[in-house]
Amino acid sequence: MKRVTKAVFPVAGLGTRFLPATKSIPKEIMTLVDRPLIQYAIDEARAAGITEFIFVTSRGKSALEDYFDMAPELEASLQSKGKTELLDALGSTYMDSGAIAYVRQHKPLGLGHAVWCARRLIGDEPFAVILPDDVIAAERPCLKQMVEAHSETGGCMVATMEVPKDQTSSYGILDVAQNGGSIAHVKGMVEKPAPGTEPSNLAVIGRYILTPSVLDNLNSMKNGAGGEIQLTDAIADEIASGRDVFGLKFEGRRFDCGSKSGFLRATVAFGLDRADLKEDLKHYLSDLVASGELDA
Ligand code: UTP
Fold this sequence. Notes:
- By secondary structure, this protein is of the alpha/beta class.
- The protein has a single domain, classed as Spore Coat Polysaccharide Biosynthesis Protein SpsA, Chain A, CATH 3.90.550.
- Helices cover 33% and strands 23% of the residues.
- Strand 2 and strand 3 form a beta hairpin.
- The radius of gyration is 20 Å and the shape is globular.
- The protein binds uridine 5'-triphosphate (UTP).
């Protein structure tokens, strides 16, 4: 089986839940502690062995391209002031020449359509998809867990986690043959099921390993939930064609940074995880609890 070395980062959405900020700032550039969301996604991909990074962008996302470019004036200034630590911090923003590619999605027609836009760059091999607004804190990076599991199973694989029943209508939901163990064989998938119709409480999270046949399924451009071309539907077509789809119950903690409350939670959690911020943040939070302000 061919190794997974390409990852698609769909970043062409409008990010309306963060308006007005996202009128001019791409959601993926918004900062979790001191790094933009996209940096966490790229680091996770690198840790999983990804060497080719495909961005599906749209109008107004040029800040993303600049972020991965050289910054000669900034570097010269840091160099002349001997700020080597800050120069080192820029290291992870550099990409090997030719390792990063951008394609445009001209209209936000849905996640499935965004992935389809990258089809020529993907070619005929399995590929990963990472949604940068799902940030996953994990000892072993989530995509690495998936690549390892996928090398055993083949087929398509989605990251999955249990969500409360009353939230299933916000996710793609899996219908699984057996809900034991860390890898579930998927019988069906439904995007944003109406409350009460969900086949399980196993939600699809923004990490995928897909076979190129999913791109063929997307050729038909079927409108799904919310009138969008859904990636979930194209993966469900794989099952209908008799091909394997698996759900990996990854180890780690997922933050929905596409929502305001998820972003705030992630900021606290990642702040507490940082040696240089932990003590200060802990004091602030315990003072806040002690003050009774939270009970108001
Ligand atoms: P979301 O459902 O979070 O949509 O997309 P959004 O536009 O980013 O944000 P809201 O809901 O308006 O606040 C999930 C992922 O799919 C990408 C987004 O960029 C995000 O990474 N996406 C979505 C596209 O690239 N194109 C689309 O047409 C839709």
